[in-house]
What does this fold into?
Amino acid sequence: MTTLYVATTNPGKLRDFTVAAEAEGIAIYPLPGLKDIPASAEDEPDFEGNAQVKAVHYSRFLPGEIVLADDSGLEVDALRGEPGVRSARYADDAGFVTDTGTNTDERNNQYLLARLKGVSGEGRSARYRCVLVAVRGGECLLTAEGTVEGEILIVPRGAGGFGYDPLFYLPELGQTMAEIDLATKHWLSHRGQALRALMAKMRDSQRSAGTAVLQRTPSDNGPS
It folds into this structure.
């Protein structure tokens, strides 16, 4: 089984990637020793830029192996794409505080609702977007993207998921991302879609070039 390494310690992201990878016959593991590696910069203006910077940075700590990094977040049409690349830091960037606790996800959700006060209908349309980059030895191999379209509710619903999931409503299912079962979420996930798209590109590249993109480099000294 092919093994890839993903540069994230976020349990929700790892879960999304792992389930999608299993369906593709691929094993995905967190990058070994990630917590001890200096953090990568994330100051690019878009998801692809941040994902590429992170993937290149972390790949240097695992020579010969393919390392994946993503950048993902929420885009709300009425807010001209906010919070976008700042999704995880949305409330912090604005200095937004609440009296109901310091949980980052809760504060981000409350700040989003405050920003959308008075907005209704199509103005609350939004999407989750993920850009995934595969790198080996500092060299970018492939980039892929996944999106999930939805709407932002007025009040949160559901106890599952993380981030903006309790507010992200899927009209075709009549549920939020925090209400759907895990199997459905992993299939719909923007991260799962990005991974499947990346694997399709790898297979296409292999067929056209006659060599396996997923094959280790001859100089590989990485873990097996």
About this structure: Residues 2-209 form a domain with the Maf protein fold (CATH 3.90.950.10). The longest helix spans residues 190-209. Residues 19 and 141 are 22 Å apart (CA to CA).
